[in-house]
Amino acid sequence: MLQKTVKYHQDNHYLLLTPGPLTTSHQVKAVMSRDWCTWDDDYNALVQEIRQELVRLSGAEQLYTATLMQGSGTASVESVIGSVIPKNGKLAVLRNGEYGHRIQRIAETLNIPVVALDSGELQPVDVRDLEELLKKDPDITHVAAVHCETTTGMLNPIQQIGEIAKKYQKVFILDGMSSFGGIPMDLEQLQVDFLISSANKCIQGVPGFGFILSKREALQKTKGWARSLSLDLYDQWNCMEENQGKWRFTSPTHVVRAFAQALSELKAEGGISQRYQRYQQNQQLLVEGMRSLGFECLLDDGLHSPIITSFLSPKHPNFEFKTFYNNLKEKGFVIYPGKVSQADCFRIGNIGDIHPEDILRLIQAIEAVSTWKTETA
């Protein structure tokens, strides 16, 4: 059985139309064939180059510093939540999907006082509610929000959130997991103190570590605040600073090398602005093609991100998502199930090494597998 499964995956390559892990280039995959030593000067120099490039992409090189953190993107979120809020701090979370809710759960697990403003899954977070909350509750010290909430594919108004957070002198934490590297942003202009993202998102690397872009001044205040040893953000950053790229504990060397290659490919593509244009074109072609086949979007067009889009499942008695999924997989495309409690839907991402011609092939494949339209109930 195992041999059959392995052969299936070898003979049937597919594109990942998900919010990450995502489809990577052949070159990103190829560089992982070489082994690296975590103590080697060449490897640590590569880590430093990555950190410098990430800071450059932040738009404010003099203010920010980069820290790489082992684990999933959620581990990096937990590193920030558990490291930058002092013992007498309190967190406000703007929530309109699973990933805002996850920030809340992290804070609750770490016994950090937290209040959540929930605007529901189908609306952007409400900045007016945030201002009212900050007026009423002076104990709040930090505000956290998700930029691209991939539960639905919605973009949240981070410019306004940052303005209100700073109006009341709060530290602004931004989950830019599914947006950094794919959507142009200037962190200084957005007034972000800590941004969190992951190697396997819009930079188009592979899973294994996340990264945090921090205002240097804000990070330096947090020494000794961490509630975890392995996820201590300040100590991880300080080790990399003092030891020229050395991680405190064993780093995912192959993943780091793949990420360096992915950063090179981002630059060769023309930077974030060009990648953003490709993602936008992908998403627009996707929506147009799906509508031509009779599918409807979950969100209004003005709320869409260029990252991932939710589509309502057809109201047909013979439509079954698992069958739809498997049939598309056989044709070389893997999509994502829905995560919304209020609607029966599924999601299709268009980030990664995905191009307009891939989206057009996807639409043809969806049309071919939409057999329920011709089946009798």
TrEMBL record:
Reported cofactor(s): pyridoxal 5'-phosphate
Pfam families according to UniProt: Aminotran_5
Keyword set includes Transferase: yes
InterPro entries associated with the record: Aminotrans_V_dom, NH2EtPonate_pyrv_transaminase, PyrdxlP-dep_Trfase, PyrdxlP-dep_Trfase_major, PyrdxlP-dep_Trfase_small, SP_NH2Trfase/AEP_transaminase
Positions contributing to substrate binding: R347
Swiss-Prot/TrEMBL keywords: Aminotransferase, Pyridoxal phosphate, Pyruvate, Transferase
Biological process according to GO: organic phosphonate catabolic process
Residues modified to N6-(pyridoxal phosphate)lysine: K201
MF terms (GO), sorted A to Z: 2-aminoethylphosphonate-pyruvate transaminase activity
EC number: 2.6.1.37
Class in the EC hierarchy, top level: transferase
Aminotransferase class V domain span: 33-311
Chemical reaction(s) catalysed: (2-aminoethyl)phosphonate + pyruvate = phosphonoacetaldehyde + L-alanine
UniProt key word Chloroplast: no
NCBIfam families reported in the protein's UniProt record: PhnW-AepZ, PRK13479.1, transamin_PhnW
Protein name per UniProt: 2-aminoethylphosphonate--pyruvate transaminase
The species this protein was found in: SAR324 cluster bacterium
